[in-house]
Design goal:
The protein is mostly helical. It has one domain. About 80% of the residues lie in helices and about 0% in strands. The protein is built from twelve helices and no strands. The chain has helices spanning about 5-25, 30-45, 60-85, 85-95, 100-105, 115-130, 135-140, 150-170, 180-200, 205-230, 235-260, 265-280. It is globular. The two termini are about 20 Å apart.
């Protein structure tokens, strides 16, 4: 199947995940995240061609363990940053995390964008920031007086490192082990989350079970399809297109499902996104 098809379905799955989270409109506990990761791990195992947890190569195991740690670490860092700096600045630095896997692919794996594609990468990052918005004068009044830089940098680096793991596995692992790698990501993420769940002694409810499953299904498909796209497409094309494509799709779905209209700044960002996607594929 064409890698662009994998990328498009990854974008759609990621967008559905965001819409589900928005529709649930609830505060998520570690219980929800635990069920989410367990659901993803179960789907990963069910979709394995060979129901085996080891195929002779340790790469899926140890890279999956690292990725699972980053999944939970990025989640924790984002929550801490939101607490310290608010959602706006934290979301901006989360978007900037796309620079990490792009840098990894260029510095470590020798991928080189053309000047036009480099312009598309820059435009995609700028579009993500414009769409999200920086704090305006009215927002600054409610924002904390001090900006805590360390939580913001951790949010950027850990979210970027999480995204980078899929690209790293495409270079170090075997293609027949892609499904096994995804399984270990979510299996270890579930184990790490279970540790926090027990440490915090948070109660586990049926609501956590329901929400966790609803979040887990699109979460699995977005991760699996993104990995499939990365096996054929360079990271400097895949990650910006995945990020800004999801923003665009979520905006369209929010309009039809929640009647949320875009303001002028966001409409301008949509135009930037479309231009970036064209440049990235030239």
């Amino acid at each position: 199947m064409c890698p662009l098809v994998f990328l498009l379905f990854a974008i759609l799955s990621s967008s559905v995940l965001a819409v589900v989270l928005k529709y649930l409109n609830a505060a998520y506990s570690y219980g929800v995240y635990f069920v989410n990761y367990v659901t993803c791990a179960a789907l990963a195992f069910l979709t394995l061609e060979e129901k085996s947890l080891y195929n002779g190569d340790p790469a899926p195991l140890w890279l999956g363990a690292i990725a699972g740690f980053f999944y939970l670490a990025s989640l924790t860092a984002s929550g801490y940053s939101i607490h310290k700096n608010g959602a706006v600045l934290s979301s901006v630095f989360t978007r900037l995390g796309v620079l990490v896997p792009i840098g990894v692919s260029i510095l470590w794996f020798g991928e080189r964008p053309t000047p036009v594609q480099a312009l598309g990468v820059a435009l995609a990052v700028a579009a993500a920031l414009v769409m999200n918005g920086l704090p305006g004068k009215d927002r600054q009044k409610a924002a904390p007086k001090a900006v805590y830089l360390v939580p913001l940098l951790l949010t950027l680096v850990l979210n970027g490192a999480t995204d980078s793991m899929s690209k790293i596995f495409t270079q170090l692992g075997r293609r027949e082990d892609d499904g096994l790698f995804v399984l270990y990501i979510f299996l270890f993420a579930a184990l790490f989350t279970l540790g926090l769940l027990l440490k915090e002694r948070q109660p586990f409810s049926k609501r956590d079970l329901l929400f966790g499953v609803l979040v887990g299904v699109p979460n699995f498909f977005s991760s699996r399809l993104l990995l499939a796209a990365l096996t054929e497409l360079p990271a400097f094309v895949t990650y910006p297109a995945y990020s800004v494509g999801a923003i665009l799709t979520i905006s369209v779905l929010s309009f039809f499902l929640f009647r949320e209209r875009l303001n002028r700044r966001q409409l301008f960002a949509v135009g930037m996104i479309l231009c970036a996607l064209v440049l990235l594929n030239l």
